[in-house]
């Protein structure tokens, strides 16, 4: 019954630290992985925005958004500053996909876990024209602790490829390729999820869109005849 | 009009069961309402609790049982509709109003209800009383939570542990 009560505390960052100080029994309960999983699942739909990460010259920095006592200090995530050359590829469904030269990391800031993945073979030499996205299995509200990582890159002069990692199997699938003009390539920017497809912008001497269809597991390139204006790099 | 013997139906008399509290008070209630308790449901489905028999509840006193049954009677029609997917907004608002008032009670009564809802496995009531206690402690400091729930003051050893933990999560107490 105590579990049922504490699960109903509001999803504010100060809720569980405070509850865990009441007595030993409460502390053991709220620190348990089972409790934390249920707490996250229960509140995922109405979770508050805790803050945001920004990428600066000194690395990734956290800026809190809430007022005390729910204001998580910047120093709480200071380990990010120690990851040299670290870039945020994508934030989605409460997960952050990080690229730290030659490896990828999926980080769940609310659960505190970090899983490291190697970049799959064939993609490792192309990390300057490379992008990725992470999706939690089941999405935002009903998701579980498993996730999929999608990376896209130019893998040779004439092709772009995608590769999908599943945390359930712990493996990368086979690369999926499509023809892509050598004049454009993805850059390390987050993908966009629309319906059941992921999209990335392609940049270079010409522009286009790379689409990965989650259901059909196929990759398509759409080229633009004219250069388009983007938020990312406004062209004159 | 002949009422069916065990009719839970909409016409005629609904089937009644008798529940007996720990202090031997007998409560006659519709089977549909008592069946909100997972613990009682099987006994009632097997035909128990009818006639002169009655189901003894040695862990629930009459004051608490009367309160529990008030909840069950109010919620039985909605539960019979499978969580009332067709309920109107007015019906839902009325149940919500009832629930809010229902837990606006003395802490000692609330604790007896928590135990009874747990023992009788009444899901909706468990959830309602758990939410009430969560609301009582939300936003409070650990010491305020202890006082609210009537815990004794921490021992020096507990206090030392609390201080150590506060160093790590000091921001949560600002």
From TrEMBL, chain A:
Q: Which SUPFAM superfamilies match?
A: F-box domain
Report domain F-box positions.
2-37
User: What residue ranges carry the coiled-coil annotation?
Assistant: none
Instruction: Determine the domain of life of the protein's source.
Output: Eukaryota
A single Pfam family, by name? F-box
Name of the protein described by the UniProt record: F-box domain-containing protein
- Organism in which the protein naturally occurs: Eleusine coracana subsp. coracana
The organism that produces this protein has a lineage beginning with: Eukaryota, Viridiplantae, Streptophyta, Embryophyta, Tracheophyta
UniProtKB/TrEMBL annotation, chain B:
Report quaternary structure and partners: Part of a SCF (SKP1-cullin-F-box) protein ligase complex.
Organism of derivation: Eleusine coracana subsp. coracana
Show the SMART domains listed in the entry.
Skp1 (SM00512)
Highest taxon of the source? Eukaryota
Show where the SKP1 component dimerisation domain sits.
124-163
Outline the extent of the SKP1 component POZ domain. 16-75
What this chain does, per the entry, is described as: Involved in ubiquitination and subsequent proteasomal degradation of target proteins. Together with CUL1, RBX1 and a F-box protein, it forms a SCF E3 ubiquitin ligase complex. The functional specificity of this complex depends on the type of F-box protein. In the SCF complex, it serves as an adapter that links the F-box protein to CUL1.
Give the taxonomic lineage as stored in the record: Eukaryota, Viridiplantae, Streptophyta, Embryophyta, Tracheophyta
- What is this protein's name? SKP1-like protein
Q: What biological process terms from GO does the record include?
A: jasmonic acid mediated signaling pathway; protein ubiquitination; ubiquitin-dependent protein catabolic process
Report the pathway entry. Answer: Protein modification; protein ubiquitination
Q: Which InterPro entries does UniProt cross-reference here?
A: SKP1 (IPR016897), SKP1-like (IPR001232), SKP1-like_dim_sf (IPR036296), SKP1/BTB/POZ_sf (IPR011333), Skp1_comp_dimer (IPR016072), Skp1_comp_POZ (IPR016073)
Q: Which family does it belong to?
A: Belongs to the SKP1 family.
| Record's keyword terms, sorted | Ubl conjugation pathway
């Amino acid at each position: 019954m105590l579990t049922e009560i504490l699960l109903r505390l509001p999803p504010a960052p100060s809720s569980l630290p405070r509850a865990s100080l009441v007595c030993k029994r409460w502390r053991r309960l709220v620190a348990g992985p089972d409790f934390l999983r249920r707490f996250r699942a229960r509140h995922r739909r109405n979770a508050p925005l805790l803050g945001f990460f920004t990428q600066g010259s000194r690395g990734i920095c956290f800026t809190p958004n809430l007022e005390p006592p729910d204001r998580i200090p910047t120093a709480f995530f200071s380990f990010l500053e120690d990851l040299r050359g670290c870039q945020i590829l994508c934030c989605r469904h409460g997960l952050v996909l990080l690229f730290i030269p030659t490896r990828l990391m999926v980080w769940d800031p609310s659960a505190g876990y970090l899983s490291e993945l190697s970049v799959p073979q064939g993609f490792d030499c192309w990390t300057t024209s490379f992008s990725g996205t992470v999706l939690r299995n089941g999405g935002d509200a009903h998701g579980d602790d498993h996730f999929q990582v999608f990376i896209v890159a130019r893998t040779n002069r004439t092709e772009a490829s995608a590769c999908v990692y599943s945390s359930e199997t712990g493996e990368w699938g086979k690369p999926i390729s499509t023809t892509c003009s050598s004049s454009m390539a993805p850059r390390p920017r987050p993908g966009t999820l629309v319906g059941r497809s992921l999209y990335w912008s392609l940049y270079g001497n010409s522009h286009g869109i790379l689409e990965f269809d989650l259901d059909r597991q196929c990759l398509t390139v759409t080229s633009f005849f004219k250069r388009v204006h983007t938020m990312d790099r406004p062209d004159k | 009009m002949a009422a069916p013997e065990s009719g839970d139906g909409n016409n005629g008399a609904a089937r009644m069961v008798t529940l007996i509290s720990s202090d031997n008070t007998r409560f006659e209630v519709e089977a549909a309402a008592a069946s909100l308790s997972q613990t009682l449901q099987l006994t009632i489905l097997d035909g128990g609790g009818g006639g002169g028999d009655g189901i003894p509840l040695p862990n629930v006193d009459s004051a608490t049982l009367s309160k529990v049954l008030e909840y069950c009677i109010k919620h039985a029609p909605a539960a019979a509709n499978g969580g009332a997917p067709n309920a109107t907004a007015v019906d839902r608002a009325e149940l919500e109003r009832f629930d809010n008032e229902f837990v606006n009670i003395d802490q000692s009564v609330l604790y007896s209800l928590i135990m009874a809802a747990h023992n009788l496995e009444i899901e909706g009531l468990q959830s309602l009383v758990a939410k009430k206690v969560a609301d009582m402690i939300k936003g409070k400091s650990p010491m305020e939570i202890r006082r609210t729930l009537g815990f004794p003051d921490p021992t020096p050893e507990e206090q030392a542990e609390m201080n150590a933990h506060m160093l790590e999560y000091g921001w949560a107490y600002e």
